Amino acid sequence: MVAQRSTATARRESIRQAAGKRFAVSGLHGVSVDTIAREVGISEAYIFRLFGSKRALFIDVVVTACDELTAGMATASEGLSGADALTAMGHAYVALLADQQRLLLPMQGYAACADPIIRQAMQEAFGRLWSTAARASGSAAADVKQFVALGMLTNTLAALDVDHADANWAHAARAFIPFA
Amino acid sequence: MVAQRSTATARRESIRQAAGKRFAVSGLHGVSVDTIAREVGISEAYIFRLFGSKRALFIDVVVTACDELTAGMATASEGLSGADALTAMGHAYVALLADQQRLLLPMQGYAACADPIIRQAMQEAFGRLWSTAARASGSAAADVKQFVALGMLTNTLAALDVDHADANWAHAARAFIPFA
DNA sequence: ATTAGTTGTGAGTACCCACTCACACAAGGA
DNA sequence: TCCTTGTGTGAGTGGGTACTCACAACTAAT
């Protein structure tokens, strides 16, 4: 019973899509490989053939999400510097942020850092993000840290689903979001 | 074979200790109730008797950690207001932060927010933290958000174990920490 | 048509998990 | 002495989990 043949490359991509969606909300240990396989419409065994292990798939997906954020910010700040660059990156961040998955995946990556191999990968990805922000903005280290900190707060608010929460603090938190 | 009798209250407390330690690094799904039970030196069954479910234990431990942070900040800022209050709370945060567990537990709570019951509890705990910061500092909403954002960044850096990382961005990140 | 390479799976294996329940042991009061 | 109350567990149950492997089916080139 073979529904539809595909190339390994294309399969890998649909697996990444489904895995990203699931890992983002449930984390590494909150979803089984079989669940992801069913969503893609293939067998569990084939995921292991294509990615080797659940951990490898997780790292692939999470690091990609981080690097997309980094790349988006680098593009946005091209030709700018200092506060202008940070503002531009902030806008880029907000634009990417419409897709909550991109915020939740890094957070699930941080949460899974008990595993040394995942931690190593996350340190590198976070380092690229930080360095990109630092390079673009010039030398104002304090601004960079505030910028990255706002990003982390945004991740947290996404996890808390503050958009659908109704409380005083939630309104206050939402109000800040377009952080330029 | 009964090693040592104890009161339920005391048992609950040692379970919270062990569970906090494990949940902090591995998250809700990264550790089994049996592992925690062995660490305490009791049977798995007794944990379920005392806490009802793994989720209830997780919420208990994580929300307690959040509220300890909140309480610490409230105490530190007593009698102060505005920037002074935020500075005092920052110092209090740094003091509590020596125990990384207290930072990692909230983050594991955010990461587990796919579960609506956990999300509800985390929203409330986060709301108390935010409101406390807001009340203490007066009305400068922007400052409050920056303050909370730095806290979130600190959580992330703890997860990444930046203290033991050796890279340019890691040095820069560490440099900021005593954020007054 | 045969071969060789790639895509894909069914059926495991060996173990782990949250949770339950009937029951045991201890201690104080009547 | 019995009885109640609270502390504690052994032995499950039913289902899940990551991962493996022998093998099938399709495709393209010779």
Structural class of chain A: mainly alpha
Average pLDDT of chain A: 90
* Portion in strands of chain A: under 5%
Q: What pattern of helices and strands is seen along the backbone of chain A?
A: HHHHHHHHH
Rg of Cα set of chain A: 18 Å
- Extended strand count of chain A: 0
Would you kindly provide a written description of the structure presented here, covering whatever features stand out?
- The structure is a homodimer of 180-residue chains.
- Chain A contains 9 helices and no strands.
- The radius of gyration of chain A is 18 Å and the shape is globular.
- In chain A, helix 1 packs across helix 4, helix 1 crosses helix 6 and helix 7 packs across helix 8.
- Chain A is mostly helical and 180 residues long.
- At the A-B interface, helix 6, helix 7, helix 8 and helix 9 of A face helix 6, helix 7, helix 8 and helix 9 of B.
- Chain A binds a DNA duplex (30 and 30 nucleotides) through helix 3.
